[in-house]
Amino acid sequence: MVLPASSEFPPLPYAAVLLAAMVLVGWRLRGVRPSVDDRTVLALAPWMVAGSGGYACYQLELVPGVIAPFASSPTVYATTFAVAGAVWLAAARVRSDPPVHLALAGVAAALVPVGVALAAGVRNDSLALAWPLGGALVAVAVSALVWRALQSYQPETAVAGWAGALVVFGHTLDGVSTAVGVDVLGFGEQTPLSRLIIEFSASLPTPGALGDAWLFVVVKVALAALVVWLFADYVAEEPTEGYLLCALVAAVGLGPGAHNVVLFAASGGG
Questions:
Q1: Is 126 buried (19+), middle (13-18) or exposed (0-12) by CB count in 10 A?
Q2: What are the domain boundaries of the chain?
Q3: Exposed end of the chain (fewer CB within 10 Å): N or C?
Q4: Which of 175, 162, 146 lies closest to 44, judged by CA?
């Protein structure tokens, strides 16, 4: 009900290598215990985009065969954790503002798969930027309004800072980009639970202008705002664990959302 229908797991040798890398990186991070605040969570955002872009390239068959299993879903999230974690360890050794170094490395990592996907769109004459980028701009506007309203009516949520804003934006982007894909570009929703929500909203007697996925957008935005509100006290009392949880929740939204934007832009339609 949670994993997309296209989910596949890598062959055993790939899984073993990835598991070893994750254990090693996790063990080292636990030992080093780099400082975590809202800027650290924000610095991880480009890495979420990098993983999403990698999966989009995998779907477009642009990843070399020898490393393709590392870019499949959901394996790509583990791959991204291992690489980003290793970079985070290196950044933690830098005395001058580690989050900046982590973010810059993430931007460089994200530009590779995104650039490869868009270049393929140009070669195949399938590049279509208007709707995906338009949806991203709508997500920025909506998430900004929601974040501002959340801080006005629940001032305690301000403690989440950039981490809270990223949670709201990530899930808003996922909702809006999914609506663009389903209602405009003709893509189908792969995640069973999300598809059920979309099918339910399509059955409601609402104006046709709202499309089939409007309820999915509302649910995503509302859940993101609720999570930030519920996590506020935890972030204030246990900042490290609270911010890491925010990063995880943000990744669950920003990852699929960024993937949608890259895939839709590169392929042009369903």
A1: middle
A2: 12-267
A3: N
A4: 162
Question: What whole-number distance in Å separates Cα of residue 115 and Cα of residue 53?
Answer: 9
DSSP letter (8 states) at residue 91: H
CA-based torsion, 86, 19, 166, 269: positive or negative = positive
Q: Which of 260, 180, 164, 173 is nearest to 220 (CA)?
A: 173
SS3 for 162-212, per residue? HHHHHHHHHHHHHHHHHHHHHHCCCCCCCCHHHHHHHHHHHHCCCCHHHCC
Task: Tell me if the pTM is above 0.90.
Answer: yes
Strand, helix or coil for residue 1: coil
Write out residues in the chain with pLDDT < 70, as ranges. Answer: 1-7, 95, 269-270
DSSP one-letter code for 238: S
Burial class (CB in 10 A: 0-12, 13-18, 19+), 152: exposed
Which whole-number Å values give the CA distances from 134 to 107, 128, 177, in the listed order?
Answer: 21, 11, 9
Q: What angle do CA 153, 154, 159 make, to 5 degrees?
A: 140
Strand partners, 74: 8
Query: Cβ distance 68 to 82 under 8 Å?
Result: no
For the stretch 56-104, pLDDT in tens is: 999 999 999 999 999 998 899 999 999 999 999 999 887 677 899 999 9
Q: For residue 268, what are its two tokens?
A: 């042009």
Angle at 61 (CA atoms; ends 166, 176), nearest 5 degrees: 30
